[in-house]
Amino acid sequence: MKRRARAAQCGFTLPEAIIVIAVTGIIAAVVATFIRAPVQGYFDSTRRAQLSDLADTALRRMTRDLRLALPNSVRVTSAGGSLYLEFLLTRGGGRYRAEPDASGSGDVLEFGSAASPYRFDVLGQMPTKPVTPGNSIVVYNLGPGFGASDAYQGSSGNLRTVSGVSGNTVTLSSAVAFPLPSTSSRFHVVEHAVSYVCTANATDPAAGELRRHWGYALAAAQPIAFPSGSDALLASGVAACSIVYNPSAVAMRNGVVSLALTLTRSSAGSSESVTLVQEAHVSNMP
């Protein structure tokens, strides 16, 4: 008697496939419900960290520049919804020769009148950053409102351009004497003017920005437009900012610039904001 082997049948039916798909979908939905919050939290934390790093970098850059500001050169104004912070950036300084040496020689910095060529000896070491032609020398800056003792007045004030340097002797381009001597025979070397412009936009933070301008022409009145010089974007997504300057916050010798910056970034229907506050002390001893 012959036996017939029945072929084994493998696979599953359509109802079974539908049941498996439905169960898989339910499991996926349950898992997604539990992991959605942690995943969203991770992306929020990453975005927050990026915003904090961006704001911190911008404020640190502003603080570093402000610590090198020429005494009494910081000024703040607002126009057209933007805040403007301006100061003169120094690259060093030192003491000038106020009296001849024991032998009666040496180039003394003259006041009241000056012979040509107009030059002076630097006592001690030269500034760490070399003084080069094109830099400016400022003596006893008292700031805006003090006439000729205001470096923003340029050559009409107390700012003179360096035309040459030989050893420890600095020559100035014009024989126009400085208006007032420094009580401690100090001078400052000014590199150029710097302005920080913060344009905040709470309604559309993507349109807000913090920008740095430098190397433009000096003006007696604080500028709000910069047709010359260079500029760089420090931060975007600026929702709010604040710049407050107190010129005599510490014993009348130091000023304080209070800075606050709020950055906002939106993504996939959610937004994240960070606000950082920082204070920068500036020396106002001329």
Number of helices: 1
Helix proportion of residues, in percent?
10-25%
Are there runs of 5+ residues with pLDDT below 50, and where?
Answer: none
Backbone shape:
elongated
Q: What structural category do the secondary elements indicate?
A: alpha+beta
- For the record, the count of structural domains works out to 2
Report strand %. 35-45%
What value does the average pLDDT take?
89
Q: Quaternary status of these chains?
A: single chain
Radius of gyration: 32 Å
Order of strands, widest sheet: 2-3-6-5-4-7
User: How many beta-strand segments?
Assistant: 12
Distance between the termini: 122 Å
Largest beta sheet, briefly? 6 strands, antiparallel, barrel
Instruction: Report the order of strands and helices.
Output: HEEEEEEEEEEEE
Task: Characterize the structure shown.
It is built from one helix and twelve strands; from the N terminus they run αββββββββββββ. With 286 residues, it is of the alpha+beta class. The chain has two domains: 43-87 and 193-283, no CATH class; 89-191, no CATH class. It has a six-stranded antiparallel barrel with strand order 2-3-6-5-4-7. A hairpin with a 2-residue loop joins strand 11 (254-267) and strand 12. The protein is elongated.
List the helices and strands and how they pair.
Layout: H1 14-66, E1 75-79, E2 82-96, E3 118-123, E4 136-138, E5 159-166, E6 169-172, E7 186-199, E8 209-214, E9 230-236, E10 238-250, E11 254-267, E12 270-283
Antiparallel strand pairs: 1-2, 2-3, 2-7, 3-6, 4-5, 4-7, 5-6, 7-8, 8-9, 10-11, 11-12
